[in-house]
Design a protein that fits this description.
The complex is a heterodimer of chains A (581) and B (619). Chain A has 581 residues and is α/β, with parallel strands linked by helices. Helices cover 35% and strands 13% of the residues of chain A. In chain A, β3 (49-52) and β4 (59-60) form a beta hairpin. In chain B, β11 (374-381) and β12 (387-392) form a beta hairpin. Chain B starts with a helix and ends with a strand. Classes of the chains: A alpha/beta (581), B alpha/beta (619).
């Protein structure tokens, strides 16, 4: 243990602790901007400078490790002045149109400006002016807002192993840019959106689709159906100041109805269909010698990644569409017939924890019923935005339930929103289908939890099934290399692009660097999903009565011809970089 | 491959053969024509001079005359320089077409080519190099072989005690005694910061690690500095040898030299030196059967000033973007590829072999109490003798500028000198007698720096000078940390405004505040020292700043925006020359009438001033 004093307070911490962490232990707050725990610990922004007795110049609290007998002062006039100057400098090169910024109110820079009471820019000068990149269907980069903290760069490189963005240029004209400064649309970006979650300001944001949704809602001719992904309900409340991990499904449905959607359906039901199809596909491959391992395909960022990086493994991808796409196809076919509405008039909106879903919607082969399965994708953040625009008092809303007939879902569908959830849901069904017996235990503990890679060997009907679950694309890469090199003999692989799965998706409420350092956000959101599952009466997808009914009345066999037409898709090998024509 | 005995033999024989290089009364019938092949002289066609000499000698079948390329003699202002040994006659500003005359007159007839002899500042014709005031106060240790040997010939290096220090170290000294010697010599880092070299070596030796590295920082980036370049061009083997000694002392078997690609001659000669040393078995495995392995590799920098910062340099060698790392950990513990690494600059290494051979006591007898030995300066700016000088620590700036440098040209007055380049500060008339050493320079707000020394006369505006250096830093900032990336730019913005007459009351205080915070909050030395030129010019020339801001006046006349041109009616004869030459038609007036400048239209280009035969145009 190391003993030191910070602002006169004695602190004892373990060796290897940073000054920032040690200070936090005694409730001393040190401002940070570029710091993102475990991801970007570089000391670039200089907001966290502190004085250490006997040292020339300042120490960098976010990375400087404590030393025995260290005397640290975090709030001397000199430190405060230096931080104020640093902040002033950042602001002098920042597009300060705060009122018209998506991050107004949630911006870490804005908060610091408030705390430091910046009422004027002392060091004025020209700003760097950049073109906004809004060519991709998922992510908008507005470099005029960038403060070069490089949290996005570290996330893209270190967490996701992609490196679509990196530092370019030098000095005042330094920038975070892509290969040849191309649009994210034309480089190796997977649209996972983790960079958005990392950005302290408004330099990275989702491509806003609320306008299209409002337009559809205003259009009398449109029959507007909304569906919400499992992970949305356990995060949406955060946008309204509620505790992380609160399940607000009931309030969300009420709010959606108040917003004017004609029907509010549950993507969890779509997830049940995915399990039926994917489970059937797996059994087929497993028992009849198909391409193994079979890899899940629900995560569009992941699908884009494999298309760019491992096209040779595309045959391993399940041909199943993701739940909301399946569901969209069913709404525009089965449900349209059922309510006798021309499917061309149906407008399907998906509320997703994901920005890559915005891209997925536009993919080829995503029009099962002859119309685009889904017409607009909005993220959890965008839904919150719409609720706020409508001045709905979200916290005070009463609960209501999803609409019939496509609102009934199983617990298996709910856990789709977390890493390991798709695997667990699938195993529940596969196990029973293969053995013909009810399982004694539905929880598959080895595939639960925070680890980026979880491997397990299961025994199903006397046969060994090796499964692996990975979240985060860097982990996905490890698994793909294992498969490619023949080192691994998995049969079933679940991959989610975002670390922790959809609950930590790129469309979820953005938490500050300080919150990310101190709260286990992933567990809180994931546990809320597991609680939904636990409390569900039905916990296996194949037991969902809606599903049974639709297969019986409309689809026929799982994995059959009609199901394939509506619920399956195809993939293409993609170039990582769009080179000049 | 050569055995140690063979190398000793080369040393003995070659030394006799080359005695005429250093001994004017050498007993020989040979003559050596030395042609400077430093970068300056090379760009003034010295390779052509060398070629011409050789051609003429061949054509005329002259025997016993050799033509040799050497490194820099130092007096770059008089280049290309040709020296004839053993008589040590020194010809300045030689052109390729002068070769014929030199051969005929000097070599064949024993007469001096008077017109090519150099005139000293006092107009005295100088025959020998040593007679020049320029050389009188110099002491050449680091530059010992520069201008004496052919840098591309390992035998010539060996002749002048080359690789003798290595031999001594490997056979007679322990790593600890090497470090003790270096420590006792008092040698401090010549890269600028002046950290005790022996201490650095011992930190690296003490660091735990199965693999250690020795690195030479040859990323000399200060504007106007060419000390390290000249050493690498003139005596590359002395750096190879010193790096080997360092490797032996700290326990490293691999060295890297990081040279900027803009130094093609230095790169070429250093690579040749490595190849030659390898060829002789001096570099490689089990050197001279001592069990010591050492090899060297050249890494090229792409011209980023920040890569002179040691941790950014390491990043660049490792193939990453040249950005500094935060210290601690220091390179001695976690350096190149995460291994303990010793980094010294070229000039520091250039002193090592001499310290080993002549002893710590000899070295520490030179210089001042805390700054031992000599320092090489690249003398430039408004001074007569532009060039490379090596002086013992403790000489005064006045001696360098006036005795060695020959004072200020064109009868102008000395105003200030800048040491330490963009990281340093200016030294004024009142501090001219400050002895040159690390502490004294720091105490007057400047720094030793790597050795750039730029002299300015009274035609230089100090605000503009600060602006120049900040412009450099802004270009060279890596962009990693906020204070340097944006702060230096804002300093430049303010300085630009001031020089354009848009300065406001309070700007000087604002500059000082920002400077202070950039110094304290920047990640690396580049940012931490970037404000120095601003602070030191404010310190000594605050009145000039105030004049720019309050009176919109630049006393040196350098800030064009502040220039107000008018025509003196007393002197104007109405010739119309100014009017005809004004590019923006800002001048009006009838013939034989006084002309007038419209200040709204005038762009202050100065054409009229140059054209007016009556000096009637005043600023």
């Amino acid at each position: 243990m190391i003993n030191l004093t910070i602002n006169g307070k004695s602190v004892q911490v373990e060796e290897g602790t940073t000054i920032l962490e040690a200070a936090k232990k005694v409730n001393i707050d040190i401002p940070t901007l570029c710091f993102l725990k475990d991801i970007n610990e570089v000391g670039d922004c200089r907001m966290c400078v502190v004085e250490v007795e006997g040292r020339r110049g300042f120490a960098t609290a976010c990375i400087q490790k404590v030393e025995e007998g260290m005397v640290v002062k975090t709030n001397t006039p000199a430190v405060t002045e230096a931080r104020r100057v640093v902040l002033d400098l950042i602001l002098s090169n920042h597009d300060r149109e705060c009122l018209t910024c998506t991050r107004n109110g949630t911006c870490e820079l804005q908060k610091l400006a408030q705390e430091f009471y910046i009422d004027d820019i002392r060091y004025k000068g020209d700003r760097n002016v950049h073109e906004i990149d809004d060519l991709s269907p998922a992510i908008v980069r507005d470099f005029n807002k960038c403060i070069l903290c490089r949290r996005c760069v570290a996330t893209c490189k270190k967490v996701q192993g992609i490196g679509a963005i990196d530092s370019t240029g030098r000095g005042f004209t330094s920038a975070v840019s892509t290969y040849k400064n191309k649009s994210l649309n034309d480089v190796n970006c997977t649209f996972c959106g983790q960079c958005i979650e990392a950005c302290p300001v408004g330099a990275l944001k989702e491509k806003d689709s609320t306008g299209e949704v409002w337009r559809a809602l205003r259009d009398e001719d449109k029959y507007v159906v909304v569906q919400t992904a499992p992970a949305v309900r356990v995060a949406l409340g955060e946008e309204f100041g509620m505790e992380i991990g609160t399940n607000v499904a009931g309030k969300m449905v009420t709010a959606l109805k108040e917003l004017g959607f004609d029907k509010v359906f549950d993507t969890n039901t779509g997830a049940d269909f995915t399990i039926m199809e994917e489970g059937t596909e797996f059994i087929e491959r497993f028992t009849k010698g198909g391409t193994l391992p079979m890899i899940t395909s629900c995560s569009p960022g992941w699908v884009r990644y494999i298309e760019m990086n491992y096209p040779e493994l595309i045959p391993n991808l399940s041909t199943c569409k993701s739940p909301h796409q399946m569901f969209g196809a069913l709404i525009k076919s089965y449900y349209a017939e059922k309510i006798n509405v021309d499917p061309s008039k149906i407008f399907v909106v998906s509320v997703m924890p994901c920005v890559a879903k915005k891209f997925e919607r536009t993919r080829d082969n995503m029009s099962g019923a002859g119309y685009k399965d889904v017409d607009a994708v909005i993220t959890t953040r965008e839904l919150a935005r719409m609720i706020k625009q409508a001045h709905i008092d979200f916290v005070g809303l009463d609960d209501s339930g999803f609409d019939d007939p496509m609102g009934e879902a199983t617990g298996a569908g709910a856990i789709f929103g977390t890493t390991g959830g798709v695997m667990e849901a699938a195993l529940r069904t596969v196990q029973e289908k293969l053995t013909g017996k009810e399982a004694e235990k539905l929880e598959y503990e080895p595939v639960r939890g925070a680890e980026g890679i979880k491997r397990a060997t299961l025994n199903i009907n006397g046969k060994e099934v090796k499964v692996v679950v990975a979240s985060g694309l860097k982990n996905a890469q490890i698994i793909m290399e294992e498969i490619k090199s023949g080192k691994a003999d998995y049969q079933f692989v679940e991959i989610m692009a975002c670390p922790g799965g959809c609950v930590m998706g790129g469309g979820q409420p953005i938490r500050t660097s300080k919150e990310r350092a101190s709260i286990d956000i992933r567990s809180k959101r994931a546990n809320a999903l597991y609680t939904i599952d636990e409390k569900s009466v039905l916990r296996k997808s194949h037991e969902n009565p809606v599903l049974k009914k639709i297969y019986k009345e409309y689809l026929g066999e799982a994995g059959g011809h009609k199901a394939h037409e509506l619920l399956h898709t195809s993939y293409v090998a993609r170039e990582k970089y769009k080179l000049e024509e | 491959m050569k055995t140690l005995e063979e190398i000793k033999k080369i040393r003995e024989e070659k030394r006799k053969e080359l005695d005429l290089r250093v001994n004017t009364s050498a007993d020989t019938r040979e003559k050596h024509i030395l042609v400077c092949h430093g970068t300056g002289c090379t760009s003034s066609k010295s390779p052509k001079i060398l070629e011409n000499f050789r051609k003429i000698i061949e054509e005329k079948h002259i025997e016993n005359v050799r033509v040799i390329q050497t490194g820099c003699f130092g007096l770059c202002a008089k280049g290309p320089i040709v020296i004839i040994r053993p008589e040590d006659v020194f010809y300045a500003m030689v052109k390729p077409e002068d070769c014929e005359e030199i051969i005929e007159k000097h070599i064949q007839n024993g007469e001096l080519v008077e017109r090519l002899l150099c005139k000293d500042i006092d107009n005295k014709v100088v025959k020998q190099l040593d007679e020049l005031n320029f050389y009188k106060k110099q002491k050449r240790i680091a530059l010992k072989n520069c201008g004496v040997i052919d840098p591309e010939n390992i035998d010539e290096y060996i002749a002048f005690d080359g690789y003798k220090a290595l031999e001594k170290v490997l056979f007679e000294m322990t790593p600890d005694s090497v470090i003790e010697t270096v420590s006792a010599s008092g040698l401090r880092g010549r890269g600028g910061a002046g950290f005790p070299t022996g201490k650095k070596w011992s930190f690296t030796k003490m660091a735990k690690g199965d693999q250690k590295y020795v690195v030479c920082n040859a990323d000399e980036g200060d504007p106007g500095a060419f000390m390290d370049r000249s050493i690498l061009e003139g005596d590359p083997h002395c750096v190879v040898e010193a790096m080997m000694i360092a490797g032996y002392a700290v326990g490293a078997n691999k060295g890297y030299i990081y040279v900027r690609a803009e130094y093609p001659i230095a790169v070429k000669r250093f690579q040749k030196a490595i190849d030659a040393a390898r060829g002789y078995g001096i570099l490689g495995k089990n050197i001279w059967n001592t069990g010591f392995d050492f090899d060297l590799e050249v890494r090229l920098g792409a011209g980023a000033f920040v890569c002179g910062e040691e941790t950014a340099l390491l990043e660049s060698i490792e193939g990453r973007r040249g950005q500094p790392r935060l210290k601690p950990p220091f390179p001695a513990n976690e350096g190149l590829f995460g291994k303990p690494t010793l980094i010294n600059n070229v000039e520091t290494y250039a002193n090592i072999t001499k310290i080993i051979l002549n002893g710590a006591e000899w070295y520490s007898s030179i210089g001042t109490e805390k700054s031992k030995g000599t320092k090489v300066f690249a003398l430039g700016g408004n001074v007569n003798n532009i060039g490379l000088v090596e002086v013992p620590m403790g000489v005064t700036l006045r001696e360098i500028v006036f005795d060695i440098g020959g004072g200020i040209p064109n009868g102008r007055k000395f105003k200030a000198a800048q040491t330490g380049g963009p990281s340093g500060g200016c030294i004024t008339e009142e501090n001219l007698d400050t002895p040159i050493d690390y502490e004294s320079l720091q105490s007057i707000g400047s720094m030793m720096g790597s050795g750039g020394l730029i002299v300015m006369d009274d035609s230089k505006c100090m605000v503009n000078l600060a602006k120049f250096y900040l412009g450099f830093t802004v270009d060279e900032s890596c962009g990693k940390c906020t204070p340097c990336r944006i702060g230096t730019r804002r300093l430049l913005d303010m300085l630009t405004r001031i020089t354009e007459g848009k300065g406001e009351e309070g700007d000087v205080e604002k500059l000082e505040e920002l400077c202070k915070n950039i110094q304290k909050a920047s990640v690396c030395g580049l940012g931490q020292t970037a404000p120095n030129p601003v602070l030191s010019t404010i310190k000594y020339f605050r009145d000039e700043y105030e004049e720019h801001i309050r009176d919109k006046k630049c006393r040196a006349g350098e800030c064009k925006a502040l220039m107000k041109l008018h025509i003196d009616p007393e002197l104007c004869k109405g010739c119309g020359l100014c009017k005809r030459n004004c590019p923006v038609d800002a001048i009006t007036g009838e013939v034989k009438q006084t002309h007038v400048i419209d200040p709204e239209k005038c762009i202050k280009c100065g054409t009229c001033i140059n054209k007016c035969p009556f000096h009637a145009i005043k600023s």
